[in-house]
Amino acid sequence: MKLFGTDGIRGRVNEFPITAEVALRMGKAVASVLNSPGPQRNRVLVGKDTRISGYMLETAITSGLVSMGMDVLLVGPLPTPGVAHLTKSMGAVAGIMITASHNPYEDNGMKIFGPDGFKLSDALEALIERHIMGDEPEPIPLPPREIGKAQRIDDARGRYIEFVKQTADNISLHGTKIVVDCGHGAAYHIAPLIFRELGAEVITTGIQPDGLNINESCGALHPETAAALVLQHGADLGISFDGDADRVIFTDASGQVVSGDRVLGLCAIGLQEQGKLKNATLVATVMSNLGLIEAMAHHGIRVEATAVGDRSVIECMRKNGHSFGGENSGHLIFGEHSTTGDGILSALQVLRMMKEKSATLAELAAFMHEYPTHLANLPVPSKPPLASLPKLQKLMLQATSEFGTLGRHLIRYSGTENKIRVLVEHRELAQVQSWTAQFTTAIHEEIR
Fold first, then answer.
1. The whole model's pTM is what?
2. What is the CATH number of the domain that holds 335?
3. Active site residue 67
4. 45 burial level (CB within 10 Å; 0-12, 13-18, 19+)
5. What is residue 251's three-state secondary structure?
6. Catalytic residue among 32, 53, 101, 323, which?
7. How many CB atoms are located within 10 Å of the residue 330 CB?
8. What is the pLDDT of residues 119-177, one digit of tens each?
9. What is the DSSP letter of 15?
10. Are residues 121 and 210 in the same domain?
11. Cα–Cα distance for residue pair 142/68, rounded to 1 Å
12. I need a surface site. Which of 45, 69, 251, 322 has the fewest CB within 10 A?
C-alpha cells in the first residue's frame, strides 16, 4: 500500500500524506468503509497525542466524518490504548488516533481501530486507502439535515483511568517510589495520576507538553532521563513512555535500563506461575534476543516469533489463542485486558508482580543471559529491494554461513521512517561489531 505502513499512516507534517487534505479524505473514507447500516447514527471516536499538528489533523478528519453523516466523539490527548478501549466500550464503529508515536514533533500519523478495539485488517486498510487516493467513486453529498455532529467527551480520561486501574485489581502501591517520564506525550496527565491514586510516591518528568517537545531527549527513546532521576531520588524503578504511551521502557533501582526482552520474559514467567499464560506460549518478534528463547525454554515456555510490529504479534495471539506477547521495543500486549500495546497497563502489571513476589525489578529480570546485540538505524534516501543490492546480499549469505547457531542478523527497512534497520546478534561481541560495520559500509555504498 502507498499510504498505510506497519502502524497506520505516518510522515512529515504538511507533506504528503500528512496533510489536511489527506486527513479530510481519510475521514470520508472511514465513514464510507465502516459505516454500519441501521437506524442509529454511527459514531467515530478521535483522539490524539500532544503534537501541535494534532489540531490541524483532528479538525480535518472531523470535517470529513461529519460531512458523511458520522457523529464524532473528540477525546483530546489520550494514550493510543485509551482510544482503542473507548472505541469498543462506547460503541463506536471506529476509533482514530492521531500520533506518530516515538517520532519527533515534525512527524504525525493516523491509526485506525475497528469497533472491537483492534487495528484494522490489511483488507480494510487497503479499501480505505483506495477511497483516499480517489480510486473509488466519490460519495454522494448528503443533505444538510443528515450531516453529523462533533462533541467533546469530558470524562474520557476518567473512563480510561478506572479501566486501567481495574486491570491490576487496584493494587496498592504504598511504599513504592517511582520515576515516571511521560515524554511530554499523551500520558502526561493520566500516568502520574494513576500511580498516585494507587498510593505510589511519584517523581515526574516530561509532563509539560508544548506541542513541540514530544519525545525530545525524554521518554521511551531516552530512558537515561528517568535513570538519572531514579538514582537522584533513590526510587525503586523508572517508567518511560513514548509519545502515545503504547510502549514502556523500565529502569531498575540501580539506574540500569531493563531490556524489553527481559520485561517480556519476566511477565511471561509471572503469568505462567499464575496459570494465565495460555498455551504456555510467549509471542515475540524476530527482533527478540536469542537469550530470551533459551531462558523461556528453561521455564517450559515456548516462544512464537512473528514479523516486526505489535500488529503482527496481536494477529498471532488472536489466531492461535495466546494471551501474552510483545516486542523488545516496549510494546506489551496483555490479551486478557487489552487489544493493543498499553504502556500504563503494562507498568501496573510489572509493579504488581514486584509487589506479589516482594522482589525488585532487577531480581525479576535476572532470569536470562542476553547475547551481545547491536541495532543500527541508518537513514536512507530510498528503499530499493534488498535483493537488488549484490554486495549486501553476499555479506548476508556469508554471515549466515559463519554464524551457524551462534548468532543471527536481520536487515529490514523501517515501516514508519526512511531508515534501514541492521540487527546483528552473536555470542561474541567482536563478531557483532565487525559484522555491523561491514553491513553498514555496504548499505552506504549501494543505497545512494
1. 0.91
2. 3.40.120.10
3. no
4. buried
5. strand
6. 101
7. 26
8. 999 999 999 999 999 999 888 889 999 999 999 999 999 999 999 999 999 999 999 99
9. B
10. no
11. 7
12. 69
